[in-house]
Recover the amino acids of this structure.
């Protein structure tokens, strides 16, 4: 019994950990209450990729709303996070990586001049200010820019900046609850 418990705890600590989706920010891909499995060791061997859905610690202040770590124009996304990390866990999709030049048009990332408008997994952004951020930022080295799939209802890197690699916990790769949504990404 103790061996089984120890093994289960070790698997969660270093290999695969379950997470529950807390908000609407990833709809329609992931619903509130849905549960996912996250690979915690993959990024020890490989860099996160554009399109990966990841669990991570956001910058300090992100859990309270739009707290950016650098002054910026109202027409651009937050270029840098606050220096500290939150203890909260967020789940979002990576849309840009280190060195990428990024702006936002109609809720879609424009990365290095190419608009990623073919995103069938997103909900429309609407007309809010964060849906159009035409003044570009450059993603700092070792950072990734995260956006929720529900672009009009997601607090994400647009508001609190790119996330350092050290704060990325792992890649979500499967859903296991509810039963009608079981599957691999």
């Amino acid at each position: 019994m103790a061996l089984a418990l120890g093994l289960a705890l070790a698997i969660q600590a270093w290999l695969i950990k379950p997470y529950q989706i807390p908000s609407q920010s990833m709809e329609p891909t992931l619903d509130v209450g849905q549960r996912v499995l996250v690979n915690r060791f993959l990024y020890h061997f490989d860099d996160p990729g554009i399109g990966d859905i990841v669990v991570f610690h956001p910058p300090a202040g992100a859990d309270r709303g739009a707290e950016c770590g650098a002054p910026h124009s109202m027409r651009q996304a937050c270029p840098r996070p606050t220096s500290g990390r939150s203890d909260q866990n967020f789940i979002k999709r990576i849309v840009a990586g280190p060195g990428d030049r990024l702006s936002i048009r109609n809720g879609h990332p424009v990365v290095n001049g190419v608009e990623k408008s073919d995103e069938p997994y997103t909900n429309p952004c609407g007309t809010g200010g964060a849906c159009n951020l035409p003044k570009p930022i450059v993603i700092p080295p070792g950072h990734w820019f995260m956006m929720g799939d529900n672009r009009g209802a997601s607090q994400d890197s647009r508001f609190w900046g790119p996330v350092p690699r050290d704060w990325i916990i792992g890649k979500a790769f499967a859903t296991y609850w509810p039963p009608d949504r079981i599957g691999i990404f």
Notes: Residues 105 and 132 are 5 Å apart (CA to CA). The first helix runs from residue 2 to 14. The chain has a mean pLDDT of 90.
